[in-house]
Amino acid sequence: MYNLGTLDTFGEIRKIIAREIPPEARLTKVEFEGPSIIIYANNPNLLLENSEPIKRIVREIKKRVIVRADPGARKKTDEAKKTIEELIPKEAEITDMNFDEGTGEVTILAKKPGLVIGKGGSTLRDIASSTGWRSTIIRSPPLKSRIIEQSLYYMGKEQDYRLDFLKKVGRRIHRPKIYNNGWITISALGGFREVGRQAILVQTLESKVLIDCGVKPGAQNPFDEFPRLDLAEFDIEELDAVVVTHAHLDHCGLVPLLFKYGYGGPVYCTRPTKSLMTLLQLDYLDVAVKEGRPTPYGLKDVKKVLLNTIALDYGEVNDISPDIRLTLHNAGHILGSAMVHLHVGEGLHNIVYTGDFKYAKTRLLEPATSCFPRAETLIMESTYGAPNDVVPSREETERQFLEYIRNTVQKGGKVLIPILAVGRAQEIMLVLDEAIRFGSIPQVPVYIEGMLQEVTAIHTAYPEELARELKNRIFHKGENPFLSDHFISVDDRSARSDIAEGAPCVIMATSGMLTGGPALEYFKLLAPDPNNTMIFVNYQIEGTLGRSILRGVREIPISDSIGKIDVVQVKMDVKSVDGFSGHSDRRQLLKFVNNISPRPKQALVVHGEESKCLGMADCIRRFFRIDASAPSVGDRLRIK
Ligand SMILES: [Zn+2]
Fold it and tell me: Could you tell me the distance, in angstroms and rounded to a whole number, from the CA of residue 196 to the centre of ligand 1?
């Protein structure tokens, strides 16, 4: 039933490389690091000047190849630093340089990375040829990001662990294949016929890959809060890889738990997701401690995730196991969000998992991709999949939102926007910045509270991932709306009562559903004044305070830090604006299925309430004649 296939073993790859590299390059060793193959040479410049041999190798072995100078052929770090400073123009404004002796890579932080790279990468090549060090350029964010700085410092301290880890992953990915047989199953561990605790296990006879591992916020009992990692087919010891689509807790909140229970393999995601995910996991722990809840994992597990993360660019193809190749594509949902494309067994089968996605342009991001090299199975979210889930147009949404603000400010009131820190907040900031600049609302201060400032700083570190117009403004016009003077960061909580008693303003604060955080503090201060307005801009989940207020409850008992209960009378105006969502609505979901190329043979509908998953699957069957279903948590399906 199966045959032994050991074609791409390490030995064979090494033979091919030894055959192709010209002797003058003086090849010293070949190693695996994560999904890449590293070629060390004493004269690597020869391979940088003439890339033909490397191109031939890549064509033959179909793997990512990196050329590095042998450690003996590299300049010492202080000399290399001097040379790099001479080669890079002063205007690039270098802010930091980190040398990694293990990998021979130097990370250069600069305010203008374009000037570090040079025309067509010329400066980078000059650095490599005159120092022997390969360089990676990172933009120093114009807003200070604590997470990015601390992660770099921590990764720098753990270089030996990291190198050893990458070599282990490399050997595991390129282990000989045992089976050459088509058999692929998908296990629904969480987020099927429900929203929350997303986790999908993809298995072949060779490998096991887990996509997402999230929590279900507001779950009624712990059994429903976590994905079903207890199911027989989930064996943490045999897991090859974890892929994270994006940095929302219902997709990445429990990744550290895997490490607590012994997982030591790689976590693949985009670079922005890596930073945002760390921030969210730390915040998740912080909130649990403050609310006196037990934490499912500790700080050391979050750090382990960071050390084991391999960041990928959109479109980059990487082997992640002997028979699975991973590519991430833009999902348009939040910064760094990705759709997952898995190519299984040399053309055997292709899976596209959308993750959360927006199939329309927003101010912040370009729309999700719908073109893939191949796609037989589609796994699609359906958060807004019901027939009445059709949101108003963006123009109408923004007009309504700004009208509420204008009316409130005109009568001398303040506007409170409870908001989700990642994605929605930055989208609203872009709307407010433009409205103030063009005078469609009066010039009032916009206070930014909670995690928002840090999340926004991370956005300023990755401007190349943002929507085209926004990117153009930042790069070519030197205007970064996130740095606008209208936004005032509130770092000291004692300022809150002054803000609440002061002049008209807009306040953006987490949490988005008034379940806690600074939004709740402001709510207590602002609710009794009928001149004020609270505007909800995101979905209010059943059971949250936001949902009760939206339903019309106007007397709210809230306990303070010592347990004393106060009844807050809600006299402020309460409004809700739909249409800023980072998810595709019903029309956009159907348009995506209509446009996806090539057309899949089967579809699994996930990440939606039960009726929405079932209804959407039915709709896909009828309209597109695609074999569609909506599996339940605990199901295991053979898809090939
Ligand atoms: Zn999401």
Answer: 9
- For residues 126 and 270, membership in a common domain is answered with no
Whether the Cβ atoms of residue 247 and residue 281 lie closer than 8 Å to each other = no
Q: Give yes or no: residues 553 and 613 share one domain.
A: no
Distance 181 CA to ligand 1 centre (A): 35
Number of domains in the chain: 4
Give the end of a domain, one of 576, 606, 628. 576
Give the pLDDT confidence of 458-485 residue by residue, as tens digits.
999 999 999 999 998 988 888 899 999 9
Q: Which two tokens stand for residue 532?
A: 């004020």
Distance 210 CA to ligand 1 centre (A): 17
Residue 424 C-alpha to ligand 1 middle, in angstroms?
Answer: 10
Distance 329 CA to ligand 1 centre (A): 15
- Separation of 46 CA from ligand 1 center, angstroms? 46
Segment 105-131 mean pLDDT: 87
The burial class, CB within 10 Å (0-12 / 13-18 / 19+), for 622 is exposed
Q: Is residue 150 part of a domain?
A: no
pLDDT per position as a tens digit, 187-238: 999 999 999 999 999 999 999 999 999 998 777 787 889 999 999 999 999 9
Question: What gap in Å lies between CA 520 and CA 285, rounded to an integer?
Answer: 19
Q: Which amino acid, one-letter code, is at 92?
A: A
* 308-326: pLDDT as tens digits: 999 999 999 999 999 999 9
Angle in degrees, 0-180, between the axes of helices 586-595 and 610-624, rounded to the nearest 10: 40
Helix axes 299-307, 159-173, angle to 10 degrees: 60
222-240 burial, b at 16+ Cβ within 10 Å, e below that, comes to eeebbbbbebeebeeeebb
Ligand 1 center from residue 194 Cα (angstroms) = 14
How far does residue 462's CA lie from ligand 1's centre (Å)? 19
Same domain, 267 and 289: yes
Single-letter amino acid, residue 148: I
How close is the Cα of 358 to the center of ligand 1, in Å?
Answer: 10
Place of tokens 């002061």: 502
In this structure, the answer to whether residues 29 and 91 fall within a common structural domain is no
Q: How far is the CA of 607 from the centre of ligand 1 (A)?
A: 10
Q: Which CATH number covers residue 106?
A: 3.30.300.20
- Rg of the chain on CA atoms, in Å: 26
Residue 18: both structure tokens together: 């030894």
Dist. CA 339 → ligand 1 center (Å): 12
Paired tokens of 324: 């699975």
CA 383 to centroid of ligand 1, rounded, Å? 10
- Structure token digits, residue 447: 């206070």
Range of the domain at 42: 10-71
- Burial string for 132-147 (b: 16+ CB within 10 Å, else e) reads bbbbebbbbbebebeb
- Spacing, Cα 363 to ligand 1 middle (Å): 17
- How many angstroms is it from 382 CA to the middle of ligand 1? 12
Distance 356 CA to ligand 1 centre (A): 5
Task: Give the Å distance between the CA of 617 and the centre of ligand 1.
Answer: 21
CATH of the domain at 629: 3.60.15.10
Q: Are residues 103 and 25 in the same domain?
A: no
